[in-house]
Amino acid sequence: MDILTLLQQRLLSASHQIPTGSAWGFSLVGLGLYALVALPWGWRGGLLRWEPVRSPAAIVSNGAIALVFPALVEEILFRVLPLPLPGSAIDPLRFWGWILGSLLVFIAAHPLNALIIFPDRKNTFFDPTFLTLAGLLGILCTAAYVQSGSLWPPVVLHWILVMVWLLLLGGAGRMGFVPPPAP
Q: CAAX prenyl protease 2/Lysostaphin resistance protein A-like domain: which residues (predicted)?
């Protein structure tokens, strides 16, 4: 099987797999565990601060954009395409190697984005707290994908967490999406 056929098969399988109730439950528990770790870590590291976005237009536009990028695009690029289909007959060590490699590339993609595409976001994309939380997000989304075999739980998790950061915890201001609040 050539590589394009393999990637197409992975994408079609993951996008057509309807998540079960237990897959959504697993994702919800993972979301709670992520919050228990990420909130204190992010506050202590200075990445998170209470800064809600109040503009309805900014909320809608950030929500629509974040659903496509980063949530959908990054989950396809860093989970669905590189990882063998969950349940594939593959050596467990090799499967874990793909998971680790994909996770490292996911983390490294953020500072690379700052160097190549968004130089004004270097302070965020090189921040050790941001990279740690991005790594934890990658672990959560990988677990949701492997457990469900579906693209949709990791996309929803990724989108929810990005939206909470952007709209409530200072992310939109850090990323330059909205003007910083008045002092």
A: 60-161
Report yes or no: 134 and 43 within 8 Å, Cβ to Cβ.
Answer: no
Which tokens sit at 56?
Answer: 């309805």
Joined tokens for residue 141: 């989304």
Among residues 127, 132, 171, 162, which one has the least CA distance to residue 31? 162
The two tokens of residue 119 are 């130089």
Helix (H, G, I), strand (E, B) or coil at 53: coil
Q: Kindly state whether residue 12 falls inside one of the protein's structural domains.
A: no
Distant-in-sequence, close-in-space partners of 71: CB < 8 Å, separation ≥ 6: 155, 156, 158, 159, 162
Residue 102 domain-assigned (yes or no): yes
> What's the domain range around 142?
68-183
- Number of folded domains in the chain? 1
Dihedral over Cα of 172, 38, 22, 78: its sign? positive
The pLDDT tens digits for 44-69 are: 999 999 999 999 999 999 999 999 99
Domain presence at residue 10: no
Q: Which residue has the tokens 């979301």?
A: 31
Task: Calculate helix-pair angle for 128-148, 152-168, nearest 10 degrees.
Answer: 150
Model confidence, pTM = 0.95
